[in-house]
Amino acid sequence: MADKQACWGLLSTARINERLIPAIRASGRSELLAVASRSDERAQAYAKQWDIPHAYGTYEQMLDDPAIDVIYLSLPNHLHAEWAIKCAEAGKHVLCEKPIAITTEEVDRMAQAAEKNGVIIQEAAMMRFHPQTRYLRELVAKRIIGDVRLIRGVFTFILDNQGDIRLNPSMGGGSLWDLGSYCVSFARTVLQAEPVEVSAYQISGDSGVDLSFSAQMHFPTGTLVHFFSSFQSFAHIEADFLGTEGRIYADIPWVNHIGASASVRVTRSGDVEGTSTFSDSVEGHTTDTKRYENINAYQCEVDSIVESVLNGAEPVISLADSWNNIVTIVALHESARTGKPVRPSTRNDEFTQRRR
Ligand SMILES: NC(=O)c1ccc[n+]([C@@H]2O[C@H](COP(=O)([O-])OP(=O)(O)OC[C@H]3O[C@@H](n4cnc5c(N)ncnc54)[C@H](OP(=O)(O)O)[C@@H]3O)[C@@H](O)[C@H]2O)c1
């Protein structure tokens, strides 16, 4: 199968496609064959602009094209499940944008459709495919900073487009679905654990979606995770970890910048005697920095699903893993609504154990 190509179709003309198109073209084992839009005119114009051979004026027409193997699904959040299931029923693999769905029932139906039709449906949470995320998970697993007590994450930007899908509650809008979903996935994967209890507070906009969201998650590892997502704050991205024997700082934890260099800085206590007061605890520390230059997380994501489609490699993000992400996000929303802590009913089945 070495020469086999994965033939791709883009389901919608979404802005995010611009990150995927160069990655599909650079993958070496992919061909971008088609784009579909609700409007024939838009599909034709988009195909011309991006030099894509086929344009379809309905999504269904592209699903009927037997030449397409993989669909990149970049619809608004509330349409992910419906169209991923239609793609699966048409025998297509799906790279589905995050969040994979907005209810766990939807993820269950997606899993049934994938299994029944022998295809992969995988969530496009790009940072999960980047080597930096694997490295952070290894640092935690090897207890490089001892027991991790706290992880803090921030993912924010100013959203000033009033017509944006992110501000529409019926489309799965809000900063938690859009940005916080990365923070939840990140914490779960680096800790290799599911949260036992969550609590949250949100600032709502006129439409009712959360414009800013502050979340806490308590993990069975004894780790507290706090993250802040917002459409109302200066663009900022970072995560840090505080452990019993050191700390880790990641400057671009969600690695969503193409061509940006990301770094992970690990500071550990040396063999210092008497660290019982804050004044002598800064002595003898060591700091190591690992840099990632020009690694495109979207490229890693495309290469990974192509390997699954062509050679049967296990998907990096299983649907069971995504299910636990969604149940956690739903619990966070419930906590923000009720003002009470919520215990998410995550499933610890064998799929979750295989999470990478
Ligand atoms: N991984 C990442 O880095 C990343 C970044 C940004 C966004 N995303 C995700 O990608 C998805 C798309 O986000 P985006 O900002 O790129 O979206 P967008 O530019 O608003 O595009 C969404 C597309 O969906 C189609 N669509 C179908 N029904 C629609 C409806 N009722 N209203 C609006 N559009 C509709 C439209 O395409 P046609 O008119 O051509 O059919 C539209 O171009 C979301 O799930 C988002 O969470 C991921």
Topology (elements, then pairings):
Elements: E1 6-11, H1 17-26, E2 30-36, H2 40-50, E3 54-56, H3 59-63, E4 70-73, H4 80-89, E5 93-97, H5 104-117, E6 121-124, H6 131-141, E7 148-158, H7 175-191, E8 197-204, E9 210-218, E10 224-230, E11 232-243, E12 246-250, E13 262-268, E14 286-292, H8 297-311, H9 319-338, H10 350-353
Parallel strand pairs: 1-2, 1-4, 2-3, 4-5, 5-6, 7-10
Antiparallel strand pairs: 7-11, 8-9, 9-10, 11-12, 12-13, 13-14
Helix pairs in contact: 1-8, 4-5, 5-9, 6-7, 7-9
The structure holds NADP nicotinamide-adenine-dinucleotide phosphate.
Structural commentary:
With 356 residues, the chain is of the alpha/beta class. It has two domains: 6-125, NAD(P)-binding Rossmann-like Domain (Rossmann fold, 3-Layer(aba) Sandwich); 128-299 and 323-353, Dihydrodipicolinate Reductase, domain 2 (2-Layer Sandwich). It is 33% helix and 27% strand. It contains ten helices and 14 strands. It has helices at residues 17-26, 40-50, 59-63, 80-89, 104-117, 131-141, 175-191, 297-311, 319-338, 350-353, and strands spanning 6-11, 30-36, 54-56, 70-73, 93-97, 121-124, 148-158, 197-204, 210-218, 224-230, 232-243, 246-250, 262-268, 286-292. The strands form two sheets. The chain has an eight-stranded mixed sheet with strand order 8-9-10-7-11-12-13-14, with helices on one face. Helix 6 crosses helix 7. The radius of gyration is 21 Å and the shape is globular. The protein starts with 5 loop residues before the first strand and ends with a helix. The model has no long low-confidence stretch (mean pLDDT 94). Bound molecules: NADP nicotinamide-adenine-dinucleotide phosphate.
